[in-house]
């Protein structure tokens, strides 16, 4: 037993060291030692050394005591005690392969295991795992050589739909990613642009238990966002569906990537600033426009088909349909610039069924042919 401010070093055998009164320093040796600090602010020293193979026990531990670790990464470490008041037992386990463990017993709370990674190839330098009184893992923390950390929260009571949440912070303590592991093995990751190097603030991705991406939500700096859904189970005729929303959550644009390589796009007049409600565009595998349909505010629509592969003698064919599905007119634009437009008497209020106008490449009217109600033709 040591009285006053003293130091005591254990030998290679299993020793019992007692500090007594005063501020003492007790160093565990190679054996399985018992260290009792007694009164005062005591320091219990453990040295990272593969020669020390014992399992040391600290039998008392007060709020002013410290555990000092030496020989690790060429710098001393100290476990602070602010959260360890009332500790009844501290155990240090030496000579664990590539690591050094300190196990702390917290009365009425559980256990903490502090692991120091001594592997020269590992980026992890320090980890803490916390257990409750039934030995269920409740939380953990990993500290890396670059100063970054990982905080882990476990659903030990099985009250949540997830099994664990992992919070990753950079060297200055900014949360740059959160990963949630769900009970079924699926998981999601939310990353944050803490360095402001991108045009977005966060990116949320969800995955199956096999690591296949299911969805993606990109929140942009201006408050808008882009949602992406993947056909990860191959149950649809498309592989990817993207939707853009403005700052008020209104749908502005939608794009579907189909299994056959084609693309469908829909633009929405979310601000009601145009005379149309939405525009649907179809693209082929070469991203060439094949069709575009404009849905007007009055319920009518205008469709344009494109001769994308130059297999016809026209470049575009346009058709206008009213809200009741009646064709109002159709226009065919020829390869040489000429244009043919046919108007229809869809409501039967005129003396003709339809009339065809032929325009030259310069836009002048060449001829107009009426098909009258009696079936005869009239050329103007």
Give a quick set of tags describing it.
27-stranded mixed beta sheet, single chain, 380 residues, Lipocalin, five-stranded mixed beta sheet, rod-shaped, mainly beta, 0% helix, disordered N terminus, 32 strands
General shape:
rod-shaped
Number of helices: 0
Q: Specify the biggest β-sheet.
A: 27 strands, mixed
How helical, in percent, are the residues?
A: under 10%
Q: Beta-strand percentage?
A: over 45%
Give the number of domains. Answer: 3
Radius of gyration: 38 Å
**Averaging pLDDT over every residue, what do you get?**
83
N-to-C span: 124 Å
Number of strand elements: 32
- In the predicted model, the low-confidence regions spanning at least 5 consecutive residues are 1-10, 72-88
Question: Based on helices, strands and strand pairing, what is the structural class?
Answer: mainly beta
Protein name: Serralysin
InterPro entries: Hemolysin-typ_Ca-bd_CS (IPR018511), Hemolysn_Ca-bd (IPR001343), Serralysin-like_metalloprot_C (IPR011049)
GO molecular function: calcium ion binding; hydrolase activity
EC number: 3.4.24.40
Q: Short summary of the structure?
A:
This protein is mainly β. The protein contains no helices and 32 strands. It is rod-shaped and about 120 Å long.
């Amino acid at each position: 037993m040591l009285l006053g401010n003293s130091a005591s070093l254990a030998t290679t055998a299993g020793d019992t060291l007692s500090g007594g009164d005063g501020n003492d320093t007790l160093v565990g040796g190679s054996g399985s030692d018992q260290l009792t600090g007694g009164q005062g602010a005591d320091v219990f020293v453990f040295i990272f050394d593969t020669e020390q193979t014992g399992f040391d026990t600290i039998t008392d531990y007060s709020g002013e005591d410290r555990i000092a670790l030496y020989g690790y990464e060429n710098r001393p470490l100290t476990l602070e005690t602010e959260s360890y008041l009332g500790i009844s037992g501290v155990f240090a386990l030496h000579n664990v392969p590539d690591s050094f463990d300190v196990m702390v017993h917290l009365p009425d709370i559980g256990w903490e295991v502090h692991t120091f990674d001594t592997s020269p190839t590992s980026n992890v330098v320090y980890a803490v795992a916390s257990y409750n009184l039934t030995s269920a893992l409740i939380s953990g923390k990993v500290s890396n050589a670059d100063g970054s950390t990982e905080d882990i929260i476990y659903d030990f009571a099985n009250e949540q739909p997830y099994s664990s949440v992992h919070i990753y912070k950079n060297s200055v303590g900014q949360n740059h990613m959160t990963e949630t592991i769900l009970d079924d093995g699926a998981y999601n990751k939310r990353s944050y642009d803490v360095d402001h190097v991108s045009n977005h603030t966060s990116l949320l991705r969800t995955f199956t238990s096999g690591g296949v991406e299911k969805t993606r939500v990109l929140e942009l700096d201006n408050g808008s966002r882009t949602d992406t859904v993947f056909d990860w189970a191959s149950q649809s005729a498309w592989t990817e569906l993207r939707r853009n929303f403005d700052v008020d959550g209104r749908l502005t644009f939608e794009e579907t990537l189909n299994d056959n390589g084609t693309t469908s796009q829909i633009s929405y007049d979310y601000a009601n600033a145009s005379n149309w409600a939405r525009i649907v565009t179809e693209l082929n595998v070469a991203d060439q426009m094949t069709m575009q349909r404009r849905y007007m505010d009055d319920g009518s629509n205008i469709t344009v088909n494109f001769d994308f592969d130059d297999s016809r003698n026209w470049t575009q064919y346009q058709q206008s349909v009213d809200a009741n599905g009646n064709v109002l007119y159709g226009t065919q634009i020829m390869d040489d610039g000429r244009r043919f437009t046919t108007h229809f008497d869809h409501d039967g209020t005129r003396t003709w069924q339809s009339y065809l106008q032929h325009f030259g490449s310069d836009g002048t009217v060449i001829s107009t042919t009426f098909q009258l109600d009696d079936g005869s033709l009239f050329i103007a």
